[in-house]
Design a protein that fits this description.
The chain has a four-stranded antiparallel β-sheet, sandwiched between helices. It has a four-stranded antiparallel β-sheet with strand order 6-7-5-8, covered by helices on one side. It is α+β, with helices and mostly antiparallel strands. The chain folds into two domains: 7-102, no CATH class; 105-191, ACT domain (Alpha-Beta Plaits). It contains six helices and eight strands. It has helices spanning 20-24, 48-65, 81-90, 92-102, 129-134, 166-179; strands at residues 7-14, 29-33, 36-41, 70-78, 105-114, 142-149, 152-162, 185-191.
Length: 209
């Protein structure tokens, strides 16, 4: 049964995922369209922080129940279920490709505060970082950056890895933490692949009168 009024699109998951998804999505509305299912709900009227927490919980439940998740940051508001169907139809190939890329994979984060270096000196990255990178061997499954901080630089990396490699990731992070005494190191995840979701939804096709 269609839900009247506006909807908030939280995520896309494969249509073939098990029915346990429905049991975990109470209070939400699942909208199928060919090979994908849209996870939607009523737009939140809560404060921004509460709305963000609710959205994160929804994405976390989807990640725990589904083989692949395409997340949308804080949701995408649409005027009606009919408009949602048109948007899905206009983006079906791109959504399917993104789901295929994320199948069986999650995003993990790694952060380290680097010691201050004299001007012009090479930056000393955390020892063992190559082992983290090896869990995401494709160049487009690894995104890293250096940020300036008052006490030096902060290294941040996001890695798209197989779900079965999560334990290996944490093991490597612990090894780095022990080897890099005095260098604050932080791991995070698993997350839906927000950093690697490069999909820009095309607008819905306007139906002829």
């Amino acid at each position: 049964m269609a839900v009247p009024g506006p909807l908030c699109l939280h995520a896309i998951v494969p249509a073939g995922d098990p029915d346990t998804l429905r049991a975990t999505m109470r209070g939400l509305h699942l909208v199928p369209c060919g090979p994908v299912i849209a996870i939607t709900g009523k737009p939140s009227r809560q404060t921004a922080p509460r709305a963000a927490l609710r959205h994160d919980r929804i994405i976390g439940r989807a990640l725990a129940s589904c083989s692949s998740v395409v997340p949308f940051r804080l949701g995408v508001e649409l005027g009606s279920e009919a408009e949602l169907h048109r948007v899905l139809a206009a983006n079906l190939d791109a959504l399917s490709a993104q789901l295929a890329r994320f199948a069986g994979r999650v995003e993990m984060g790694f952060k380290a505060r680097l010691a201050a270096q004299p001007a012009g000196s090479p930056m000393h990255l955390p020892p063992g970082l190559d082992r983290v990178r090896a869990l995401a061997p494709r160049h487009d499954d690894c995104k890293e950056q250096l940020k300036r901080a008052p006490s030096g630089h902060v290294f941040e990396g996001c890695y798209l890895i197989l779900r079965q490699a999560i334990e290996a990731f944490w093991s490597v992070v612990e090894d780095i933490r022990r080897a890099a005494a005095g260098m604050p190191v932080l791991g995070s995840g698993p997350w839906a692949a927000y950093t690697f979701c490069d999909l820009a939804l095309r607008p819905a096709q306007i139906e002829a009168p």
